[in-house]
Amino acid sequence: MTKWDRRNMIKALGMAAALPLMPTNAKAGNDMSLQLPDTQKSDKLKKPISAIIIGAGSRGWLAYGQYAASHQDEIKIVGVAEPIPYRRERVAKTFNIPKDRQFTTWEHVFEQAKFADALIIATPDHLHYGPAMAGLNQGYDMLLEKAIAQTWEECNDILELAVEKNAIVAICHVLRYTPYFRKMKQIIDSGEIGDVVSVQHLEPVARIHMSHSFVRGNWGNSQKSTPMILSKSCHDTDILRWLIGKSCKRVSSFGSLSLFKERNAPKGSTSRCTDGCAVERNCPFSAIKIYKEWRNWGQHFNFDLRSASDETILNELRTGPYGRCVYRCDNNVVDHQVSNFEFEDDVTLSFSMEAHTHYGHRRTRIFGTMGDVYGDMNELVHYNAITRKKRTWDASKLSVDENAAFHGHGGGDYWLMYDFVRAVAYQDPKRLTSTIQASMESHLMGFMAEESRLKNGQVMDVNLKVR
Description:
The chain is α/β, with parallel strands linked by helices. The chain is built from 16 helices and 16 strands.
């Protein structure tokens, strides 16, 4: 297989960074909305590509499957692999998939000869490696959910096979595809803030999201998934590496699981919120309040309910993972973590992941020698140190296809699929900014940050050595 050293990887990363950015058609004035140029919306394909969805849950169905459902002139879903019957049947019905191409598990897909152009792999983290390797061996291009795999060695295996097979492998770092972050990247690369000196970045997970996904949910245990800095925050290491545009040299990290453990369970609490818990009414993590009363976190896809009535939700809470007391789960991932990264040319980055917030939306501040840029994914501000003037963009006014069924991740889900479909159709990986080649270093940053955390904050070298 092809051997990748630091020089070759940096070259690949540089090519990805040099791809055309999505410009803005912002009108003059201080309050400008982020828009997409007409050319980005008029690239019609001569014929659709074909794809197989492997994993038809939240991401496979609600994000990528919905794009396919509303853009069947661009992409045809011709197969589905999903162990939960309701999810599998939903996809099969939407796309008229014949019975012989409806599979229970990913292994069954590869018992047949290749019958599509691409795979959409949206399985749980621990089930990325198997279908990715099998798919590459059969000649598929693929859209692969992050994290790439559970270990650095497995990530390397996928990269090597992708290179050997000359396959397009897009990693779902959807933030790169948002108009908000593309504009931030454009400002930095234009030199308008001079040389980047340092970066501050906060990822406020929000306490209910934390309890849902990273305590009760699929990503609460690192052995079953990946550490928090990969399962959640590889979005952040990736977007920050992309924005800075230089290689990372060193990292140190601190963090722990402070709240969600049994020793913090209130007196009178029970193993489930539905078991007569004495403190349920006063608990901010009450599953009855979150899922039944507030109707948060989309019961239909999390619980796989055909209808979300009070009784069906309560029954799910009595028997399923989302009804468990947050202090009595099998979770072990951190609920707060700070990481410091040093890049080439002495650029420094301070990154904080914080679960205990009432709000979401990442906050980013980029400090340069001639100005700075900062934003919270709702508003983006550029300050020019020479003119002492500010420009502000309204990131809430996104120009997204009106027929799109979703606006996930600030439009990133949509525009990732838009670019992926065209990369496969034209066999042109340069249409993507998040190929596996471009995504490897940010994954290594996460793996090394977690190793530093487990070694009491020891400074770790980030040496990108890909087998």
